[in-house]
Write the structure tokens for this entry.
Amino acid sequence: MALVKSVSHAFSILRMLPQNHALSLSEIARLCGLSPSSCHGLLKTLVAEGVLEIRVDKRYAWSPGWSVLPGALFHGDAKFTALARPLLTRCAIDHNMVIGLWRVAKGDRLHLTALGESAATTRIHMTEGQRQPIGSGAAGRALAASQHIDRDEIARRYAGVRWEQPLTLSDYADQISQAAAMGYAIDDDFGHAGVCSIAVALTVKAPIDALVSASIFSSARTDAVIQRAVQALRDLADELDQLRS
């Protein structure tokens, strides 16, 4: 069955637009993979139909009454993901980082269920739906730290990861201990060469099964950038925890 592209593109805009945050034409076009002219036509239509409004700063936002739509269309985990995705996008744009929402999945895997991307021309490539071993990356360390797993379980998860850089089990366990003390985890080039990731667990529900991560190029890593990412993820985790409570 042939799809009507303009309708699909309109839904793409609506999925990407945060509920309590306005975006410019160029930001929306970049995030949705549309040309500015095509995106402008779609936005004009959505404004004319009353779904969106254009503010005095020429940024687009949900119209009052329509901002509840993403939550009304879905239930359960699908509703949480639909409501989370615009928050991830807002965070990614505000801080120029790739922001991911990870969920624990069957088969000892972490599943990237939602992704927020900035408007930067050069970005780290990630895809919604991708999976990785449960012990991998900053998300794996943050999860292990939040779950307070024992040494045997740490060793089991460590063994399930193919590391990009040499990492001993002892160092991996130490990184999990540090994550437990700090409230966030870092992976510097071990999961993916050239990429530094930071992760924070969502804690409102037990057992803990969700985390948010920020990914940056290792060349851009500084203490100030890390602390900015940590604070952004903590604020985002608080918002997401409120959605789940």
